[in-house]
Write a structure and sequence with these properties.
By secondary structure, the chain is an alpha+beta fold. It has 5 helices and 3 strands. The chain has one domain: Sufe protein. Chain: A (Alpha-Beta Complex), CATH 3.90.1010. α3 runs antiparallel to α5.
Amino acid sequence: MEDLTEVYNELIMEHSMNSYNKKELKNADYSEMGHNPNCGDEIKLQMKLDGNVIKDMAFVGHGCAISQASTSIMIDTLKGKTLDEAKEIIKTFIGMIKREITDEKELEKLEDAIAFKNVSNMPARVKCALLAWHTIEKMLEKKDENNGK
């Protein structure tokens, strides 16, 4: 049986090298730039809503394998979720990376994004893994502010 870490590493490499989520999203409802000044990673995250559900997401930009894969896997994880479900998943992912959430049951909702669990052991990579997640957090906060929530 393959070591779980190996499976996760393959998943991260696969998403970083040929992400089908890396494209310009036509008619996006929301768009947000994310930038990590430490290493120069930069993404533009785009989201299309259908009512309260994330209908589609995509990103363009450049960066290290971890930031690119984390963005792509985040999109796979959040697509089709309601905004409230998405916010809960985002909070859980950030909590996992910061080692504030370690309960396996709680982490299950992250689906493939759990592949980044070990990044918490690599302080230099934490910002890379969190770039997209902080970017969507900012996007959703702005959306809520504009809608008077």
